[in-house]
Here is the input.
Amino acid sequence: MTTLSSTPIAKQKIAGLVLAGGRSRRFGSIDKGLQLWRGLPLTEHVVRRLAPQVSKVTISCNNNLQSYQQLSKKYRHPYYTQHQPLILRDSVLPADNGPLSGIFALLDWYDKRTNHEGLNTLSHIMVCSCDSPVIPLGLVNDLAKHLDQTDSSAAYPIVDGDHIRLLLLLEVETAIQAMRQTLDEFCESPANLSVKHWLKRLITSTVPLSGGGIGVNINYPSDFAKLEQHGP
Here is the structure.
């Protein structure tokens, strides 16, 4: 297991993004991010663990917007409210293109506002999926330290051999450039819009982590039983 010290990237330079905009077909096509575990929506478990590690949090969602906005507002640091939306709908890629749609929506939002006061101080975005509710409280620190020690522009955990690409720390400027390249290709012809494929445009590395249910994500209702075996 990787154990790292204080992050070299200031918390104020890292924004958080929680992906909750999918159709959850394997979960019965209901809003998976609002399903309860231990009395709280899955998305709230992620936000409450992510918020102390970053300066601000946006939830990517396409349904139940009011519920997600209230949830995001509940954990928003009051002194950063003006510089990132509480929620953000998919706006760049056509509908139903998976988690990359949510990532691109926030990258595009920043790309169009980089000259506004305060926005140019952002250096990284920490992306988390709403169906991985047991993210480590030191996850951003671990990934940020790794980026500082390597030439990587993106990093995510590898847990017991599994690549957890939707717990992803991105260097914003490089990620925006990679987004533009993908969108240019998409305009010319159909493109592979998976996160795995898109990360090939970046210098991406992995950080070995273990324990605490990090690698458990909720794809089916039956997966809650797995989470109970590892959850805090």
Observations:
- The chain is about 30% helix and 20% strand.
- The helical segments are 42-50, 65-74, 99-111, 139-149, 172-188, 195-198, 223-230.
